[in-house]
Design a protein that fits this description.
The complex is a heterodimer of chains A (about 180) and B (about 110).
Chain A (H helix, E strand, L loop, with lengths): L4 E5 L7 H13 L2 E6 L4 E6 L5 E7 L6 H10 L3 E6 L2 E7 L12 H32 L3 H33 L2
Antiparallel strand pairs in A: 1-3, 2-3, 4-6, 5-6
Chain B lengths: L3 H4 L7 H9 L4 E2 H11 L8 H13 L3 E7 L2 E6 L1 H23 L7
Antiparallel strand pairs in B: 1-3, 2-3
Helix pairs in contact in B: 2-3, 3-4
The chains are: A alpha+beta (about 180), B alpha+beta (about 110).
């Protein structure tokens, strides 16, 4: 990291992508420009002049077509800043008052949340196996209890995420 | 070749999809389509990069367009025969709509 890079921690849940976009856009207004992504929740910013960067997050996990996907965004003027899992971070320099979008109709935005939802659902058994195996293999009662609490917390967040995404999809479909 | 009855399941196309297919009467890659759609529609229809990517995947999966070339990580597509039929059917619907609009006098400027 260079001197002008500052690391910041802020947490957003999977269903808060629009809040995250708004936050990153606001940070650029204040001269903090996203440079790269660190561990989940950590953002590296370069400090500079305030600018009208607009940030957009997409969800894309396909590996086979990834280069074509990135090329299309690049052609359209979007700078790819990095990814975290399937989350793709893009930005574009906008005119004052303009708010460029990567999704220009509700149907295609629904597809984005469907991909995310499918991803969550497909990986649920995997996560379950990982956590439950830890739970079963812990000998100590305290450790077992902690694992159990972690498991309940994880499942609660998981269910909230699925419900929030379904709510988002429903709202978009009514447009 | 599918019958017209089967083709109606693709209808109605959204305005954006209609323009994308119309742009693909000549082979083009994603960004070129975005630019052509904006010009053709006189700026009334803008297709974002995410929407464009999704539309191309869907249309390709449905066999309405086909990849014809690939250069520098850019895939070019063109309409298939089935795509042409679907587009034609959509344009006929649009023509009927416009005819009704004209008959009602709603298309005239105030």
């Amino acid at each position: 990291m260079t001197e002008n890079t500052i690391r910041k921690f802020k947490w957003f849940w999977a269903w808060q992508d629009d809040k995250e976009e708004a936050w990153l856009t606001q940070m650029s207004r204040e001269g903090w420009h996203l440079a790269s992504l660190g561990f989940p929740g950590f953002y590296n910013f370069t400090v500079g002049e305030p600018s009208h960067y607009v940030y957009r997050l997409d969800f894309f996990t396909e590996t086979k077509d990834y280069t074509h996907y990135l090329q299309l965004f690049k052609d359209a003027g979007w700078e790819h800043l990095g990814r975290w899992g399937g989350w793709q971070y893009f930005r574009i320099l906008a005119q004052e008052g303009e708010s460029p979008e990567i999704y220009t109709d509700p149907d295609s935005k629904v597809q984005k949340y469907r991909r995310l939802l499918a991803f969550l659902i497909v990986f649920l058994p995997v996560w379950n196996v990982v956590i439950l195996r830890n739970l079963g293999s812990s000998v100590h009662e305290v450790l077992q209890f902690i694992s159990f609490v972690a498991y309940i917390a994880f499942m609660t967040i998981y269910i909230i995420a699925v419900m929030q995404l379904i709510r988002r999809i429903k709202a978009l479909k009514q447009l | 070749m599918e019958s017209i009855g089967n083709l109606t399941r693709y209808l109605p196309l959204t305005e954006a999809t209609c323009y994308i297919m119309l742009a693909l009467t000549e082979p083009l890659h994603g960004y070129a389509i975005m630019q052509k759609v904006e010009t053709m529609s006189e700026g009334t229809v803008k297709v974002g990069a995410g929407t464009m990517y999704g539309a191309l995947s869907t249309l390709e999966k449905e066999g309405l367009i086909v990849k014809v070339d690939e250069q520098d990580r850019r895939k070019s597509y063109a309409l298939t025969g089935k795509g042409q039929q679907v587009l034609r059917a959509q344009l006929q619907r649009a023509a009927i709509l416009l005819k009704n609009g004209q008959a009602s006098g709603m298309t005239r400027e105030e």
